[in-house]
Design goal:
Shape: globular
Largest sheet: 2 strands, antiparallel
Number of strands: 2
Radius of gyration: 21 Å
Strand content: under 5%
Structural class: mainly alpha
Number of helices: 13
Order of helices and strands: HHHHHHHHHHEEHHH
């Protein structure tokens, strides 16, 4: 039975990754188009190219990590090795150089590909750690739930703090671009420390021997549950990516930057950071719910039911009007959608470890 310290330490790893990932997913597109100076078409092409590179770099990193042997284990050392490059590449990604249009485009490609390569270098081994921390299927779900709970906690902190941090640095005399860079430095330092803590607090208890690469690929091709789960994971990732990447644009160009919600005598600003932060808190609720519900209904059935609810609620969101009552309904739907997302997330990683 793994200790509570190890479960918390494992959670710290994805807390760090998710802080970066959510900033990239939700704010990098609008940074490129509205601050950095790229066209939307160039931004879309950039992200497509880097995703193609991911299809090569991810399995390569998996092969390398499987064949790593150190006194710290196979996968855990990469949390230490890549912690600093992870933080530095994130800052470079949000740096706007004083270059022409072509120079900026080259900078964007180099820094984005660098960031995604480093992200792969630390996250593929991190995800693989779950298989060597315990052999117990239920305990894998618990580990995965700690992982996702801390991931959403980190996302909440990053998303809720991002716009205030950018505004703070602008008020101190910084330009728009330098304010974004300074905000990223704050987040990067925090992420660096979290990865060091994750390395310090975790251990690999299960000894896993790497087999021949050809044997690995043969086993994978014949693993039908793995293929089904991969399709399901692609669908949920597509859902989260498209929904997350459009939020900043949705609030800036549709809802408006000065929108507010009126609740009787109470009035508060309705902005992207609030919407996203509410979602992260509700994701955490969903993660907590996932363990008891999946034990009662089974992982597959729980995953399927949550997926159906995500679809129905998202279709309903499309018809919500841009009014005060509509803003309240948007928040309510965001709460329900995020709880369902929180249920799905730990189950994906737990089932991957199972299959």
């Amino acid at each position: 039975m793994a200790s509570l310290k190890e479960k918390i330490g494992y959670g710290f790893g994805d807390m760090s990754s998710s802080m970066f990932w959510k900033i990239f997913s939700y704010y990098l597109p609008i940074f490129y188009s509205d601050v950095f100076g790229l066209s939307l078409g160039a931004t879309a092409t950039l992200m497509l190219v880097t995703r193609i590179w991911d299809t090569v770099s991810d399995p390569m990193m998996g092969v390398i990590a499987d064949r790593t042997h150190t006194r710290w284990g196979k996968y855990r050392p990469y949390l230490l090795f890549f912690a600093a490059p992870f933080a530095i590449s994130g800052v470079l990604l949000f740096t706007t150089p004083d270059l022409g249009e072509t120079g900026k485009l080259v900078w964007a490609y180099v820094t984005y590909i660098l960031m995604m390569t480093v992200y792969t270098g630390i996250n593929v081994p991190y995800g693989s750690m779950l298989g060597v921390m315990t052999n117990d299927s239920d305990e894998k779900t618990v580990f995965s739930s700690f992982r996702m709970f801390f991931a959403y906690a980190g996302s909440f902190i990053a998303l809720f703090a991002w716009e205030p941090l950018c505004n703070l640095f602008k008020q101190q005399g910084g330009t728009e671009s330098s304010a974004w860079q300074s905000a990223m430095i704050v987040i990067a330092v925090f992420c660096f420390l979290l990865f060091l803590l994750s390395f310090k607090l975790t251990k690999e208890h299960v000894k896993a021997e790497a087999t021949a690469l050809g044997s690995d690929l043969s086993s994978l091709v014949r693993n039908a549950p793995w293929w089904l789960l991969t399709v399901a994971a692609l669908c949920t990732n597509l859902f989260n990516t498209v929904r997350g990447a459009t939020v900043a644009y949705y609030f800036k160009y549709y809802i408006g930057e000065n929108a507010s919600i009126e609740l009787g005598a109470i009035s508060f600003l309705f902005f992207a950071g609030l919407f996203l932060a509410v979602g992260e808190v509700c994701n955490m609720i969903g993660v907590v719910v996932a363990v008891p519900v999946s034990r009662r209904l089974g992982k597959r059935k729980t995953f399927g039911l949550a997926g159906v609810l995500l679809a129905v609620l998202s279709i309903a969101f499309f018809f919500v009007p841009c009014t005060n009552a509509g803003f309240i309904l948007m928040l309510l739907l965001q709460i329900l959608i995020s709880i369902c997302t929180g249920i799905v997330s730990p189950l994906v990683w737990s089932m991957y470890a199972d299959v």
